Amino acid sequence: MKKIYFLFCFLFLSAFGNSQDLLYFANGNILKIKLIRQSPDSISFTIYDAANPELYSVNKNELSKMLTKEGVLIEFPGKKTNYTDMDYASSVVSVNTIHIPQGRLTMIYQFMNKSGILGFEIPVSVGLFNDSYTDPLPEIFDIELYSMFYTGFGLNWYPLGQRKVSYVLGPSFRIGIGSSNNYYYDEYYHDSYRQEYYSKLLINNGLVLNPTDHFTMSFIFSLGIMHRNSPPGEYKFGTTADFAINLGFRF
After folding, report:
1. Phi and psi at residue 5, in whole multiples of 5°?
2. Buried b (16+ CB within 10 A) or exposed e, 6-44
3. Which residue, 27, 104, 129, 215, shows the most beta carbons closer than 10 Å to its own?
4. Where are the alpha helices (DSSP H) in the chain?
5. Per-residue pLDDT reduced to its tens digit, 179-192
């Protein structure tokens, strides 16, 4: 079908005496041009039938193919459509604003591949309180554990690439130290704090907003399982959840 289509275009152009070339861009645009010269990496041209022709140049990375006025189809193999609709930077540093009022500072660094489809992130979270019972949102199913420190890694998948509004989905793993708030009763209630190691395996999904090239905001909900280094006789595994509103800077 493609060969028939381009043959038809060639016959049509020949019939009307046109001497234009056609550039097919990777984003779907088609431009009528007059080819000036072609190098291994770029194409120089003027706009076809322009009143005041100006010389332009385009990188072949931005093209999928070219149909010359002679009817020769030139394809650019290995060139793929750019899924990113803006030139976003590949590195992002963000802070989880939900954790701040709970006494935790959580920073996330994320690096993305060239296509903007995959992102690799490393979080670092530090509890600002020694002993506290102020962690209800991140530990929805276990509010007695206050996270004093955690780090880990995550893989983010952006099926639409980096756009003004994007969807993100992916797994993450965390390992950290928490302060467990327990109590016992002997005519009085007594609080007892102890440190526990814990780890989490989460599935994250959410919405990412990129209003500018350098500012980003994300709303992430996570659900998964958690293992705690609890004493014998206590539950070691449990369901856990997290919610984050991240404000970030791209560079």
Report:
1. -65, -45
2. beeebeebeeeeeebbbbbebeeeebebebeeeeeeebe
3. 104
4. 2-15
5. 776 655 555 555 66
Q: In terms of domains, do 164 and 188 share one?
A: yes
Integer CA distances (angstroms), 152 to 54, 62, 249, in order: 53, 37, 20
Looking at per-residue pLDDT, the higher value among 113 and 230 belongs to 113
> Are 242 and 131 part of one and the same domain?
yes
Residue 8 lies in a domain: no
Beta bridge partners of 173: 153, 201
Query: Does a structural domain hold residue 7?
Result: no
- pLDDT tens across 10-26, in order? 444 444 445 688 888 88
Report, as an integer, the average pLDDT of 83-98: 80
Residue 166 CB-density burial (10 A; 0-12 exposed, 13-18 middle, 19+ buried): buried
Q: Are residues 68 and 154 in the same domain?
A: no
Q: State the virtual CA torsion across 160, 163, 165, 171 in degrees, nearest 10.
A: 50
Residue 245 lies in a domain: yes
- pTM higher than the cut 0.90: no
